[in-house]
Automatic annotation (TrEMBL):
Protein name: Transmembrane 4 L6 family member 4
Parts of the chain that traverse the membrane: 12-34, 46-67, 87-114, 155-176
Key words of the record: Membrane, Transmembrane, Transmembrane helix
Similarity annotation: Belongs to the L6 tetraspanin family.
PANTHER family named among the record's database cross-references: TRANSMEMBRANE 4 L6 FAMILY MEMBER 1-RELATED, TRANSMEMBRANE 4 L6 FAMILY MEMBER 4
Organism: Conger conger
Biological classification of the source: Eukaryota, Metazoa, Chordata, Craniata, Vertebrata
Pfam families associated with the record: L6_membrane
């Protein structure tokens, strides 16, 4: 497969992942699936926008660049037909780095949120105080602790599921961006194996 074709496949995969990450982050603003009574009752890590900025916006740009590499025909620079394609592949390495930073940011935020647990209240009173009842991920192996969170309802599985999805998708995105960095390096050194400007393009 051409280096440009491989990059296009990665771009096609990254687009839906970025959209899903944005949706997961948005859903986290609705603890337990319902609107929060106050912004202060939303888990702090949600406000870091790991899914929206890191795995979302910062991933869209690299994905679009990867999608366009196969059809890039910027040939003829410096009298060399293949150097335009090589430069495009080199540029993709930079964008892959941007995507990698975004994915790692989202992954770190998600891991911290999972370890800390959700912000919740331990009683059902309307004026109940919201705080973080879990310590160092102790609730992950002891599901009986989940009952401590009375408000919002179902907040623990909601929090854990969405941040786990963000964590997994962030790791996948980081791996894909890493693959493209390697692919871009190969394309920069060797050129696109399918040629730059058709069947008679230099490689």
């Amino acid at each position: 497969m051409c280096s440009g074709g491989f990059a296009k496949c990665l771009g096609i995969t990254l687009i839906p992942l970025a959209i899903l990450c944005i949706l997961c982050n948005i859903l986290l603003f609705f603890p337990g699936g319902v609107p929060a009574s106050s912004n202060d009752n939303i888990t702090e890590e949600v406000w870091y926008f790991g899914g929206i900025l890191g795995s979302g916006v910062l991933m869209i740009f690299p994905a679009l660049v990867f999608l366009g590499l196969k059809n890039n025909d910027c040939c003829g620079c410096c009298g060399n037909e293949s150097c335009g394609k090589r430069f495009a592949m080199f540029t993709s390495i930079i964008f892959a780095g941007v995507g990698l930073v975004g994915a790692l940011y989202s992954t770190i935020i998600s891991a911290a949120a999972i370890n800390r647990g959700p912000l919740c209240a331990t009683d059902t009173a309307s004026n109940a105080t919201f705080f973080y009842p879990f310590q160092n991920g102790d609730y992950l192996s002891n599901h009986t602790l989940w009952d401590e969170c009375q408000q919002p309802e179902r907040i623990v599985p909601w929090h854990l599921t969405l941040f786990s999805l963000l964590l997994i998708m962030g790791l996948v995105q980081a791996a894909l961006c890493g693959f493209q960095a390697i692919n871009g390096l190969i394309g920069t050194i060797c050129g696109d194996c399918c040629g730059c400007c058709g069947s008679d393009g230099a490689v």
